[in-house]
Amino acid sequence: MNSHYTIVQARVSRSFDRAHAFIDNASPLGASQVFIGQDAGTAFAASGDLSACPFVAIELGQECLGVHIGESRGAEGSNLLGFARFRLGRADATELVELVRQPQTSESALAAARAAFEAAGLKVAVCGDFPGRIVDRLIRPYLNAALRRLDEKLASAEDMDKTLCLGLGYPEGPNSLLERTGLAEHHDVTQALYQALGQDAYAPARRAQVAKARA
What we know:
This protein is an alpha/beta fold. It contains nine helices and six strands.
């Protein structure tokens, strides 16, 4: 398995905006290519034929990998993968990397990409090619629901957080979490998912809309 890679930087990376072993482990002579930054997809599009690479990884925002590499009647898949290191709003990036595959992605490419991320101490979760991937798809409706219950005056923000922390063992309540990581940032993610999926659970809650308008 060849997990050596070269990094192509295309503007600021949300996954790697500071020093990290994954960046340090890259090599100018790496057989694989990792495109990072806000314009990673654009840089990939201008890169030419990469079919001989053991793997190619493209940093994603909330969009699908297929936006950058195309789709073909459910049979799509090659050595191309997407990835994003999870971070919530203004918080620091976590050590979780969501690695995106398509239906017929090469198993050898998936294994090589996983090995590259894990060699840098990152934890990899593999998911299908869906907007928002795993964590945002699960957590954003929960955070929206908490904001809507606050609007309904179910309880104070403090009591809602206390109930979830003490009752369910959560390390941090939803209102505290959003205050720390940014309501405006939550708006941006939920708005993107709502536009992509059309499901009401992802529509930005009123308080997130207000925070965005004030930002």
